[in-house]
Amino acid sequence: MSAESITIKQKSGNETILDLSTNPIITFSGENMVVTNDFTSIMLPLDDIDSYVVGNVNTGILEMADTPEYHDGHVMFKGIVEGTTVFVHSIDGKMIHKFTSDGSGILDVNIGLFPKGVYIITTPENQIKVINK
Q1: Which of 42, 35, 29 is nearest to 93 (CA)?
Q2: Cα–Cα distance between 103 and 100 in angstroms, integer?
Q3: Beta-bridge partner residues of 97
Q4: What is the mean pLDDT of residues 107-119?
Q5: Residue 11 CB neighbours (<10 A)
Q6: CA-CA distance, 79 to 64, in Å (whole number)?
Q7: What is the DSSP string of 38-87?
Q8: 68 with 75: CB under 8 angstroms?
Q9: Mean pLDDT, the chain, as a whole number?
Q10: How far is CA 8 from CA 15, 83, 123, in A?
Q11: pTM above the 0.70 mark?
């Protein structure tokens, strides 16, 4: 199944819809999400983003719990399809690491490997914020 669009909903009530055929790329710059496609670039404050959804796409997650398990610096994703990529970004939007799942269905993101701080873990399905103390 192929994706059709990405919808970004803001707390302010605005909604941005971009057709995926325009090749949108999402990056983070400071406290902003930047969405660039073939025609435009949009900068949205992270604190105003309520959600973003990609429509009609195979997410690579099979019956994953809403919240992954977290134990001793390890964030464990269960039910993840082989080849799924999970990204770790620093709070300022820099990509710190990317993990790719193997065929076991479990992906261990070891936040303990990184310096103390706040990190955003992004799966094809959602984002979570974790703190490495």
Answers
A1: 29
A2: 10
A3: 88
A4: 90
A5: 11
A6: 5
A7: SS-EEEEEGGGEEEEEESS---SBSS--SS-EEETTEEEEESBPTT-EEE
A8: yes
A9: 81
A10: 6, 26, 16
A11: no
